[in-house]
């Protein structure tokens, strides 16, 4: 495969302003192409998106107004940033949580096409708690933690059903901005409709772990496992399950956790190896980054398979760049210049926009056609 180059960066701001605009300008070209292509002929009115935010995530409407107004947003931007019933979208990940001598830990591999990732670790104090997390959909998060000691991560649940609800990245941000611990998070996640199926793993400063399976067509379900991959009660999209190895990855995580002798750092090393670490970048399915959160310490490390590791803390958050090369044999990280838009950023954004004219679902359907409903599954099994 041709190596893929990507620059990861860390940014911070206390109020919605110039940094948010930079994040938006960085991500919107790709997301816009994807969103408008798949939006359909009858998008939800912006007034309804506003009302849903007010009804289900009190206070988030103020952030939404600020996001939209600060970038001079039109209706498409306003609708997108509400995350209300977006088009289908998935990421394929592995995650686990536990406690060792240093305290609680949460580890995740984010698996997708690298050029579909916004590659931004963002610290914000926009409202409520201070939050550090990986940007997803510009305003949302795929994983993160807050300064109260709550950490969250998500995986796609491996189901094709889609319903009325919010995209999971905004739900993740809302929970981290408003919830103190795992029990708070559990209560919030149960009340917010999610438009697709996702697994959310939460751990707090006290080491309490919860795994919640969210879906648009059934109530949230708690799992007793301390890991999650890309299925829920079972494999319900068989071709996707086989292609991603979700059962094999899950069993591997279960075996590692049952052993009981691996601490967070040792588990992180396990995440850098097969079957958890994947290198199908040319097929749109490879490990983009490994994140190790330690919520009691207020630290997060981003790690790549060559061992390159960068750590940020609430009390020592330094903007920086890490230049990463994705190859057939893994990922190679290199420390870069102080955080800014690199000279090749225009090229990267163009590639992101071109690649993102297809959704993550399109990437899978190039291999296995995805039916629009369960009545059209055909030979999906």
Q: Count up the domains.
A: 1
Number of strands: 17
Unreliable residue stretches: 338-344, 352-381
Mean pLDDT: 89
User: What coarse outline follows from CA principal-axis ratios?
Assistant: globular
> Percentage of helical residues?
25-40%
The radius of gyration over CA amounts to: 19 Å
CATH class: Alpha Beta
* Strand percent estimate: 25-35%
Number of helices: 11
Secondary-structure class:
alpha+beta
CA distance, first residue to last residue = 30 Å
User: Which strand order do you get reading across the main beta sheet?
Assistant: 10-9-8-7-6-5-4-1-16-17
CATH architecture: 4-Layer Sandwich
Largest beta-sheet details: 10 strands, mixed
Q: List the helices and strands in order.
A: EHHHHEEEEEEHHEEEEHHHEEEEEEHH
Which fold name is given in CATH as the topology?
Penicillin V Acylase, Chain A
User: What is the name of the CATH superfamily?
Assistant: Penicillin V Acylase, Chain A
């Amino acid at each position: 495969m041709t190596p893929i180059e990507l620059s990861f960066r860390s940014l911070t701001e206390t109020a919605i302003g110039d940094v948010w605009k930079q994040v938006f300008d960085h991500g919107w070209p790709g997301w816009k192409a994807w969103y408008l292509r798949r939006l359909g002929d009858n998008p939800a009115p912006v007034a309804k998106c506003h009302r849903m935010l007010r009804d289900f995530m009190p206070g988030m409407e103020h952030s939404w107004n600020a996001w939209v107004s600060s970038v001079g947003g039109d209706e498409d931007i306003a609708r997108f940033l509400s995350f209300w019933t977006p088009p289908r979208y998935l990421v394929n990940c592995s995650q686990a949580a536990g406690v060792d001598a240093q305290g609680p830990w949460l580890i995740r591999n984010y698996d997708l096409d690298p050029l579909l990732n916004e590659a931004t670790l963002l610290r914000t104090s926009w409202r409520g708690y201070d939050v550090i997390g990986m940007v997803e959909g510009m305003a949302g998060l795929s994983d993160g933690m807050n300064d109260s000691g709550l950490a969250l991560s998500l995986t796609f649940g491996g189901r094709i059903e889609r319903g009325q609800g919010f995209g999971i990245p905004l739900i993740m941000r809302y929970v981290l901005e408003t919830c103190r611990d795992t029990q708070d998070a559990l209560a919030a996640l149960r009340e917010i409709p999610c438009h697709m199926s996702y697994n959310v793993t939460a751990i707090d400063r006290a080491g309490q772990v919860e795994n919640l399976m969210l879906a648009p067509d059934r109530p949230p379900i708690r799992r007793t496992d301390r890991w999650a991959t890309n299925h829920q009660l079972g494999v319900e999209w068989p071709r996707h399950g086989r292609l991603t190895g979700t059962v094999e990855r899950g069993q591997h995580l279960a075996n590692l956790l049952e052993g009981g002798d691996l601490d967070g750092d040792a588990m992180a090393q396990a995440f850098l190896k097969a079957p958890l670490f994947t290198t199908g970048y040319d097929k749109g399915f490879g490990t983009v980054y490994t994140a190790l959160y330690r919520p009691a310490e207020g630290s997060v490390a981003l790690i790549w398979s060559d061992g390159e590791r960068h750590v940020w803390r609430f009390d020592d958050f330094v903007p920086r760049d890490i230049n990463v090369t994705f190859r057939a044999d893994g990922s190679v990280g290199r420390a870069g210049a102080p955080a800014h838009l690199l000279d090749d950023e225009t090229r990267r954004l163009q590639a992101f926009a071109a690649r993102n004219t297809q959704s993550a679902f399109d990437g899978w359907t190039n291999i296995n056609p995805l039916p629009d409903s369960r009545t059209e599954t055909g030979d999906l099994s």
